[in-house]
Amino acid sequence: MAEFPIVEAGKNVTRQVLADHPDLMVVAFTFGAEGAEGALHNHVHVQSTFVESGRFRFTLDGEPMEIGPGDSFVIPSNAVHGCVCLEPGRLVDCFTPRRDDFL
Predict the structure, then answer these.
(1) What homologous superfamily does CATH list for 35-103?
(2) Residue 21 CB coordination number (10 Å)
(3) What is the per-residue pLDDT for 2?
């Protein structure tokens, strides 16, 4: 099993690929401080997000929602989404197909 590096993904945000295959990728995002952001963006990949720890305010296609430990949801292909960290923690995201830009 290959070990993937931890990379900066924004101010107080890191990203680490946990597993990958051409059809699926698992990635952990760690938010180290309140106010850290995952900027609004979209991509062709279908994404599932699981909150391992912390609290986040997500926006999904203009609709806000607050999520915390144990919550999960699916982001459809090309949906505009992003988040603001309300309490430091970690998100575990799965992407299909794999996010080659993360390798």
Answers:
(1) Jelly Rolls (2.60.120.10)
(2) 10
(3) 64
* Coil, helix or strand at residue 45: coil
The DSSP element (H or E) to which 79 belongs, if any, is none
pTM for the full predicted model: 0.95
Residue 5 has what pLDDT? 96
User: Smallest Cα–Cα separation from 82: which of 20, 18, 10?
Assistant: 10
C-alpha of 40 from chain center: 11
Q: What residues does each domain of the chain span? A: 35-103
For the chain, the C-alpha Rg in angstroms (whole number) is: 13
CA distance linking residue 57 with residue 86, whole number of Å = 7
Q: Is residue 22 helix, strand or coil?
A: coil
